[in-house]
Structure formats: structure tokens, C-alpha cells
Design brief:
By secondary structure, this protein is mainly alpha-helical. 67% of the residues lie in helices and 1% in strands. It has a domain at 2-153 and 188-242 and 268-454 and 604-632: Amino acid/polyamine transporter I, CATH 1.20.1740.10. It has 28 helices and 2 strands.
Length: 636
């Protein structure tokens, strides 16, 4: 059975199955050019990340989060090269799922396909929430006011109330919502409506979606460059560049006020901003020349969006002190509010363009998921209905409708924070396997007119890089490895909890809840905290200090991150040894390394939810896919 779990598909067979004459002569329309594909990439990348999650990233990492954008861009660039190599060899729908089938085998292909549901479908839930935020903000500016309980997700309101939130809109949604029995009717109606509209558009056809997407991308780029130009000019002319070096807790100005560990806590937000460039590969069967155009479009869209993100981050962190971005879901509009740069017309413009931007993201992701399911159905891992092509529109009709339900239903019972973390970890996991897959397939001869991944023998270079990294870290951060192996500090967290003040109000008690500390980030030395608390004589001053302390704690390494880093180094050393023996190519090795490093920033909750999701997927595979797989059919 173990061998059959890793049965692979021959690349030539994959290409034959996806031919234009496949499936009763009703293949997908090949209408997309390199410009269209690049625009699809930009449409997917430049959306909720820049217009929403960017604010969370700046709050966690300060101006120094620019460094994380660069690191993430490098990781994505290596991954894009690997995607491009696969796309040039296997120019069919299915993206990372299809690539894994040809390299790792069926079990890993299923795991990636299951994980990509989280990237495209679950990720679109976050985008729908963000779209709703900007849309309701726009309606407010033109005098149309939706009730808060019809523009807020139930779980977001519930968690905020439990956490003692004082935000007027959250209180309004909770206190004024209709109640049936013990259930409060709170739901995000705009998010649900936009999902239905996008599903209908994708169902109608790729050509219509392409024209709509291209128009939105042009508007979005014009608006973003205007934000950078106006915001950047005001930051410099108003003398706000000092915000790029805010004071840390020791009153020392620093580009990274919370340290590099604080920057790393923004991994989920930053990486979510890049999710989408790989969605281009899903459109392979609708590309006119996929082996040439797919690689170009992925690289073009990635480079353009990286430059934009860096400039936007500098404008945001310069316009407003990074600490003021706490809980801000519309950061690009926020910086132009009266108390900040005070440019009313820009605030109004951003609200409009944000709606356009996130509509295009919804469109691209909603197109990607059905095509992955279509590929899995072709292989027998999903029921035949998922590969059904509409006779008139020539789109995967059934899979498109199911995608609409997969996105729409969870909108009723999830919130943005959960979806953001859930999506990022799944996508990084898929990226690791794509880069690793390149290492397992034979090198091909260079072919004119197709993308060819440069082969750089990593036999000596990669082990030397790993050894050099260990030496440099040991010299410049002498306690780095000792700290990663020392878990005694985390044990002192429990002792710290016993010293926290208890005579506080009900709302403040939520802030001090011991569950916020257990298993959370390293909150510093025990003795130092004990001395600081003992000097506080009033409940109010103890409370203020503890709040500051908990905030500072979020910037430190947690037990989960320590374990992740240890596993990262063990994998890295193992890869160095195997590379020395097998002469692996350097570029995919760097892709695996950079994506694995980004995974070290994920929390324990991320890993537990991701593990649970994969567990459900494996159950589905063994109950249906393993038995129905075309590779399981006896040969005649």
C-alpha cells in the first residue's frame, strides 16, 4: 500500500489528458496573453494584503516590517521560479496539485490540493470581509448607513465583546442586533452578496472575467501610485520621517522598535499580501502560450507588487506612528483621516478603489479553486461532477458553484483573524512542496521558447551557506542557539501569572486572563518583572504596567516558535548533507529554505488548525480518492 500512496503521474500522460480534445472535445478556451496573466497576478496579489492586512503588519513590526516584505518577496521569487519550471513542463490547470502528482506522488498531490482549498476558497473569505469593510465605509461617506449587525461577522463581534472591546461599532452591532431565542442575528451581508455576484461572473466565462479584471487592475494601479505619491510627499513635506525610527520600550529610536522577533510576528499578514502570484499557474489551459507566458507573468506581477508593498509600508509607517494601526482594517484610508494627513478627497478615493481592488482578488481566487478541483476530478480523486464543463460558457460549472458555497457558508461563522492565519500556513506549506518537487524531477534540456530554470549545482554552495549561517549567528548572536534550546523561561510564565493584579474591573480582567500568557510569547526575565511589579503600589498602575508588559510580550519568541526554529535547522542540515550527495539545484533549495523559515513564525494555533484540516482531508482521500484514483485502475 505504501508504494501505491506515492504513485506518480507521467508528465506526457498529464499533457494528453488536458488536451483541447479531452473530455468530449470541450476543453477550456485558450484566450489569455502574457498581459492578461500578469494582470491576473497583480489582481490577486494587490488586494486585501495592501488594503487591509498591511495595517496589522505595520502595527506588529513597525517600519522594520519592510525587511519582512523583502524576505517574503525573495521566498516568493524562488518559489515563482519553481512554479515557472513546472508550468513550462506541465502547462495544464491544477497548479501545485498537478506538479506534486508528477514529483512526489498521489498522497502529497492530494495533500496539496486539499491545502490549496484553504488558499483560494478560505482565503477569499478574508477578502470578502475586507471588501465589506471598505464598501460599508464608502456607503457611509455617501450617506447610506447599513445597520452594524448586518455588516459585521458574528464571531468578530462575539470575540470583541468577550475581550472587553469599547469600539462603538462593535457595541452597536451586539447591543442592537435582533435576537431569536438566545441567538443574536449578526451577519456580514455585503460579504455574502459579493461572493454570490463573483461566483455568477466566474460561472459565465473566463473572457468576461478577464476583461472585468483587467479594467479593475488599471484603476487599482493608478490609485495605489496616487496614494504613494500624495502620502509620500506629505510625509516628507510635513517632516514626519522621524516616524520611521520610533522609540522602543527603552526609549531608543529604532527602525525595528519591537526587534526582529517583533517583525516576525507579522509573517501571516505579510505573506497573505503575496498570496496570489501562484494563482496564475491555475490558468494554464486558458493561456495561449503557457510555457512561455506563465513564467513571465508570475515574475512580472511579483516584482511589480513587491516594489509597491515596500513603498506603501514606508508611506504608512511615516504618515502615522506604527502603534496607531492597532485594529485598523482600512489602513490606506486611515492615514488620510483628519487626525493624520487630513486629505478628505484621498480618503474617499481610497474607499472606492479598495472596493475595486478586492473585487478583482475575489475574482481571481474564485477562478482558481474550480480548476484545481477539475484537475483532481480528472484523476479520479473527486467525483466526476467536478470536471463537468458548461456547454455554452466552457467553464467548470459544478466546481464553480461548489466554490461559491465553500466561500459563502463560512462567512456566517468565522472572522478575519482566523481566516488570515489559516490561509497563510496552508499556502507556505504548498510552496515548500512545490520547491521540493523540483528537486525530485529529472533535469531537462534547454528548449527555445520555453522557460528553463537555471541549474546551479548546490553540492558545495548550499552546505557552505548553511555552515556560514551557523558560524555568523554564533559570532554575532552568541545566545541564539542556547536560547532556542532553553525552555525554562517559558516555565517561568506560569509563575509570572500568579503575580498579576486581580482587583480590576470585569473588562480589564479579560486583558489579564492567564490564558493569554500560558504558551504565549516569552515575556522576559522573571526577576525583572517581579521587581517592576513590586514597585507598583496601586491597582491602576499595576494594571497599566501589565497591559504594557503583555503588549511587549507579543514581540518575543514563543515556545512554538522555538520548536519550529529547531525543526527548521534540523531540516536545513539534513538538506545540506543530501545536497552534497545528490547535487541538488541551488534555486529550489533556496525556495524550500526561505519558505520553511517563514513557517517558523506561525503560532501553535495555526499548526493545530492546519493539522486538523489535513486530517479531515486524509479521511476523505482514503474513503474515496485512494479507491477511485485512475492510477488504481488495473492495467489491461
Amino acid at each position: 500500500m505504501s508504494n501505491s500512496l506515492f504513485r506518480r503521474k507521467n508528465i506526457s500522460n498529464i499533457l494528453n489528458e488536458a488536451g483541447d480534445d479531452a473530455h468530449g472535445g470541450r476543453g477550456l478556451k485558450r484566450v489569455l496573453t502574457v498581459k492578461d496573466l500578469t494582470f491576473f497576478g497583480i489582481a490577486a496579489i494587490l488586494g486585501a494584503g495592501s488594503f487591509s492586512s498591511l495595517g496589522y503588519a505595520v502595527f506588529n513590526g513597525g517600519p522594520g516590517v519592510v525587511v519582512l516584505f523583502v524576505i517574503t518577496a525573495i521566498a516568493c521569487a524562488f518559489t515563482a521560479f519553481c512554479y515557472s519550471e513546472f508550468a513550462s513542463r506541465i502547462p495544464v490547470a491544477g497548479s501545485a496539485y498537478t506538479y506534486a502528482y508528477a514529483s512526489f506522488g498521489e498522497l502529497f498531490a492530494w495533500i496539496i490540493g486539499w491545502a490549496l482549498i484553504m488558499e483560494y476558497s478560505i482565503g477569499n473569505i478574508y477578502v470578502a470581509y475586507s471588501w465589506s469593510d471598505y464598501f460599508t465605509s464608502f456607503l457611509d461617506k455617501v450617506g447610506v448607513h447599513l445597520p452594524q449587525y448586518l455588516s459585521t461577522s458574528y464571531m468578530e463581534a462575539k470575540h470583541a465583546i468577550e475581550g472587553g472591546s469599547t469600539k462603538p461599532e462593535i457595541l452597536d452591532a451586539w447591543n442592537n442586533s435582533p435576537v431569536i431565542g438566545s441567538l443574536r442575528i449578526i451577519l456580514d451581508v455585503p460579504a455574502i452578496v459579493i461572493n454570490v455576484m463573483i461566483t455568477y461572473l466566474v460561472y459565465r466565462g473566463v473572457k468576461e472575467s478577464r476583461n472585468f479584471s483587467n479594467a479593475m487592475v488599471v484603476l487599482k494601479l493608478i490609485a495605489v501610485f496616487l496614494i504613494i505619491a500624495v502620502g509620500g510627499y506629505l510625509v516628507i513635506s510635513n517632516g514626519l520621517t522621524s516616524n520611521w525610527f520610533p522609540e522602543n520600550t527603552e526609549k531608543v529610536r529604532s527602525f525595528m522598535p519591537n526587534g526582529f522577533s517583533g517583525v516576525m510576528t507579522a509573517v501571516a499578514s505579510v505573506f497573505f499580501a503575496y498570496i496570489g502570484f501562484d494563482a496564475v499557474s491555475v490558468m494554464a489551459e486558458e493561456s495561449k502560450n503557457p510555457q512561455r507566458d506563465l513564467p513571465k507573468s508570475m515574475i512580472y506581477s511579483l516584482v511589480i507588487c513587491t516594489v509597491i508593498y515596500i513603498l506603501l509600508t514606508l508611506v504608512l509607517s511615516g504618515a502615522v506612528d506604527y502603534k496607531n494601526f492597532e485594529g485598523i482594517g482600512d489602513p490606506l484610508a486611515f492615514i488620510f483621516e483628519k487626525q493624520n494627513l487630513n486629505v478628505a478627497w484621498m480618503q474617499f478615493l481610497v474607499s472606492i478603489i479598495a472596493v475595486v481592488a478586492m473585487t478583482s482578488v475575489l475574482l481571481v481566487f474564485q477562478m482558481g479553486q474550480p480548476r484545481i478541483w477539475m484537475s483532481m476530478s480528472r484523476d479520479g480523486l473527486l467525483p466526476p461532477a467536478f470536471q463537468r464543463i458548461h456547454k455554452r460558457f466552457q467553464t467548470p460549472s459544478f466546481a464553480t458553484i461548489v466554490t461559491g458555497f465553500v466561500v459563502g457558508v463560512p462567512i456566517l461563522f468565522t472572522d478575519k483573524t482566523f481566516v488570515l492565519d489559516f490561509t497563510s500556513i496552508a499556502t507556505l506549506f504548498a510552496f515548500v512542496l512545490v520547491c521540493g518537487g523540483i528537486l525530485l524531477i529529472p533535469r531537462k534540456e534547454k528548449q527555445p521558447g520555453k522557460f528553463n530554470l537555471p541549474y546551479i549545482n548546490g553540492k558545495i554552495i548550499f552546505p557552505a551557506m548553511v555552515l556560514g549561517a551557523v558560524i555568523l549567528i554564533s559570532l554575532f548572536s552568541k545566545n541564539y542557539f542556547a536560547d532556542k534550546l532553553d525552555f525554562t523561561k517559558e516555565k517561568r510564565i506560569d509563575a509570572v501569572a500568579n503575580m498579576l493584579p486581580v482587583n480590576v474591573s470585569e473588562n480589564d480582567q479579560a486583558v489579564l486572563n492567564i490564558n493569554n500568557l500560558i504558551g504565549a510569547s516569552n515575556i522576559g526575565e522573571y526577576v525583572s518583572l517581579k521587581d517592576s511589579l513590586s514597585k507598583r503600589t496601586t491597582t491602576e498602575s499595576k494594571l497599566a504596567y501589565t497591559k504594557m508588559f503583555i503588549t511587549d510580550a507579543s514581540t518575543q519568541q514563543s515556545k512554538t516558535m522555538k520548536v519550529s526554529v529547531i525543526i527548521f535547522w534540523l531540516i536545513l542540515i539534513s538538506l545540506a548533507i543530501i545536497t552534497f550527495l545528490k547535487n541538488y539545484s541551488l534555486i529550489p533549495l533556496l525556495g524550500v529554505t526561505s519558505c520553511l523559515y517563514l513557517l517558523t513564525g506561525m503560532t501553535l494555533a495555526n499548526w493545530l488548525w492546519f493539522g486538523g484540516w489535513l486530517g479531515i482531508g486524509l479521511i476523505v482521500y482514503f474513503l474515496y480518492g485512494y479507491r477511485k484514483s485512475k492510477l488504481a485502475e488495473p492495467t489491461v
